[in-house]
Amino acid sequence: MRPLKLTMNFFGPYRHEAVDFTAFDQSPMFLISGPTGAGKSTIFDGLVYALYGTASGSQREVGDFRSEFASDDDETSVELTFIHRNRFYRIKRQPEQILAKKRGSGTTKRAAQVELTVYEDETDATEVKQYTKIDATNIFLADLLQLNADQFRQIVLLPQGEFRMFLNGDSNQKEAVLRNLFQTKRYERWVVQIQEHFKRARQQNIAAQQKIQMLLQQVETTENSESSPAKELEVASTTDKLARLKIQTETLSTTLDNVEVVLSKLTEENEQKQNQLAELRRIQELFEQRTSLEIEAESLQVQATKINQIKQQLQLATWAEKNRSQVLELRQLLSLIETTQRQILQAQQEDTQISERLSQAETQKNKLDEQASEQEKLAQKVFQLTALQPLYREITEINTHKKTITQQYNQQKQRLAELKDALEQNQQQRQKNKAAQQKQPDFYTQQLELEHRQQSLTNWQQTLTQLQSQQESIQQLTQKISQLEQASMDQQEVYEQSLAVYQEKKSDYAYQQILVLRRDLLPGQPCPVCGSKDHPQAEVHDVATAVATISEQMVEDADQKRQDALKQLTQSKNQLMMLHEQLDKLIEDHSTAERLFRQNLRDSAQTRQSSLDQQATLTDINSWLTVQQTTITTQQSSLRDQQVLAEQRVKQLEQLEQQQVELVAQQTVEQTNEAKLEQELLVIETQVADKQKQLPTEFKTLIELNQFLQVSQKQLDQYRQSVEANRQELNQLHQQQTANQTNQQHFAEQLKTQRERYNDSRQQLATIFDKVWPDMGFDEQLVRFAEVANTINQMAEWQTQLTTFEQQVLQNKALIRNLNAQLANYHQVPDLDAAQQEVQTVKRQLTHQQEIRAQLKSQIEQQEKIYQQVDDLNRHLTDLSELQLLSEVTRGNGSQKLGLERYVLRTFLREVLEVANQRLARLTEGRYQLTLATESGATRKNSGLELDVFDDYVGHHRSVRTLSGGESFITALALALALGEVVQQQTGAVEINALFVDEGFGSLDENSLHEAIDALMSLESQQRMIGIISHVRELQTQIPDQLKVTSTGGGESQIRYQLSAEA
């Protein structure tokens, strides 16, 4: 990854600044210089924030990036372009910030935003893909760079005070960095999988043993048996338990076979007894059936009388059904005769009504004939008057046109009067506007004067706003410094307390260890404390009661708290120093700006003419400026109103003159139209008088004529309709009279025929009824026949009763004969009690043996199942000794406390140390050489990846934590450079073409400084861009290409370049 350009907007002290890294392509090593607090480290903040969305150091947060001087309308953003693996990338990020609303007033919180664009090659010509989601962008960049933010800071960006962390960190801290760089996470996963496999196997063994014990406890035994198999199984091994369980099961199987033989005999005897009992029960049922049939035969004999009555009723109903049709025919003929008689009577009544209506119609016809002559005269008059209608219409139209012309003539006169008034008003308004134009002032001069005063006032207001903003910044910064000083005092107290606790726990722990060692001292062995081999009688203390028990973890926790408190205290003091510098700068800038502002006010003619006091405060000046602004605004508004009014007068005068011309022309046209309308009225009046003479005097208007014609025509139409209606009525009545007479003749003939048929049918029925009821009259016979006919529906039921009764009698006799034949050898009912007792005795014996068999089968099946389960579980028990040893070793629980992953990382770290020692030997003139610590620490935290340094001056190894500040810087620098090179060689996934170093050179002497620069220059030959932040003067002279950061006041900074090529 090689950065090209970093653009920062309202980011820290930068309003709109860009860092063009391509300016250093010719000599990639460059120096970033500038005063403290100017914003040098902010460049690294922008670089890391663009790539990862975080700051470059642990002391800064993303929320601190937004510029203090940014307004609500100013957006904070960072944009970075870079090339990686022959591709061009552009990423732009905006942090969460408070901005003005796009619509309306007020502010709103805008969420963080990102935009990453990927291009096809090393130019930004062809776009391939774009990301706008933060999570997706971060995942893509992490996969692209193969470094997270912490790793980037460790290898590519070495922030102020933090790039020595890897050198001095413990094994756990080094492991966390190296794990991701060399992709050894899989080894840790292997260790976890081995541990989980061991745990699962151990849990399976425990579960299997528990299940075996539970299954063996289920074996049923004989109660109160001291030598029972269950008691023997309790003390035997699993294999012995299985053998004894098998023998017990075989014994139970033999017993089961004996029980099966007894069951077979009892089952055969039970079947015989059951068969004998069933035969006796069958004989008993036959006796019971015969008795029941004899009772049924007596009941059938009682029903015989009723059955005979049903037979008689059935014969009579059958006769009635046969003759029912002739009776129905007789009744129908009687109904027809009555209907025909009613029709004859109705026809006679209708004939009388028709005769009356004919007489009335003839009378009406005579009256209409008498009116015929008058109606003819009226029709002749209507015809003559209808011919005059067009003349009436013509006169009406002429009068209507005359009325319209008269209205137009009157309107024309009115328009002429209005035009005359308008011309007079136009003349008066023109004279008034001309007089007003002569009195208006010089607007141009007044406008220039007001604009000059407004410009001066605007400049003063802007300057005053900046001064007030600086005052607020000074007050806020002063308050923040006060709060931070109090917090620093609190942190100092916390640090001192944590230091005291740490020293106390460390001392107690050491004392505790000494007691343990002294207790185990042997004669002739050197003391681990003083080295002496002579051990005089040492005072022996009880380790458990000498001091409070202190573990190594408790000491490490106390040390960590001390380090955290010291780190927070250092951060607080550094921040306090930076804030004091910012406050001094703000106060100085504010004093200078306020002095120039007051001098400008004193030199202004505008203030000399006012009552503004020269010693007035900024608040008084703000009030005076507000009053001046109000005055100028009022004057400008008044002047604009006067200008608008003058322009309106000019336009109005032009409109009035144009209006006068139009009014004169319109007046001429209207006078001509008036003369034409007056002439047309005379012609119309003459025409109306001539045509009026041709009309009759009876009807003055067309409306009166039309009303007469309408009434007369209606009267004529009604007469014609009455004549036609009378003619049609007469014809219809004559036709109805003829048809009625024909119907009466037909009904008389029909009545005669129906009476003859009725008499014949009555005679036939009388002969039939007399055979059945000879003593009754015909009407009484009809009533009796109707009663019998009502029983026809019961014939099927009676026939079923007769058939059923006959079948029951026959069946009863047959069954009795059959039963008598079967019981011929039996003279009495058999006794079943003795036979049932024998059957019950055999059944109880059989049930008892079946229960014994079921119990034996269940017990055998259970024991066979338990035997199989226990045998399977016993065969699957696993030997865990080797697996447990493998788990312990790979986890680092051995004597060396070195796990699998850390063992692999030691190999990688050796390669890193080989490369680092090449530079370190050059930087220290062969004095120092980094090595892996050979001795294991007390805990895994201090074992495996601990570093020692071999000091050639003294000839032995010591911890890297004992190096001085300058030595530590050189060693950490060599290690960081080597780490980056080895990572690229090993993985091939990480390509680092840039390195940035923030401070640290101030702790070097002159020779070490030259060596450090030479080491960095060697990287330049490997096409790596190197940027250094430092206040060291020697670096400013030795590194000609520089990026200078300068403060411009108000918390802002600017960037400029110093390039050797330009010199």
UniProtKB/TrEMBL annotation:
GO biological process terms, semicolon-separated: double-strand break repair
Keywords recorded for this protein, A-Z: Coiled coil, Exonuclease, Hydrolase, Nuclease
Subunit comment: Heterodimer of SbcC and SbcD.
Any GO MF annotation of the entry: ATP hydrolysis activity
InterPro entries (UniProt xref): P-loop_NTPase, Rad50/SbcC_AAA
Native organism taxonomy: Bacteria, Bacillati, Bacillota, Bacilli, Lactobacillales
Signal peptide positions (record): none
Keyword Nuclease found: yes
Pfam family, one: SbcC_Walker_B
Protein name (Swiss-Prot/TrEMBL): Nuclease SbcCD subunit C
UniProt domain Rad50/SbcC-type AAA: residue ranges: 5-220
Organism listed in the record: Lapidilactobacillus concavus DSM 17758
Sections of the chain in a coiled coil: 198-225, 256-303, 330-440, 467-494, 555-589, 639-808, 832-873
Family indicated by similarity: Belongs to the SMC family. SbcC subfamily.
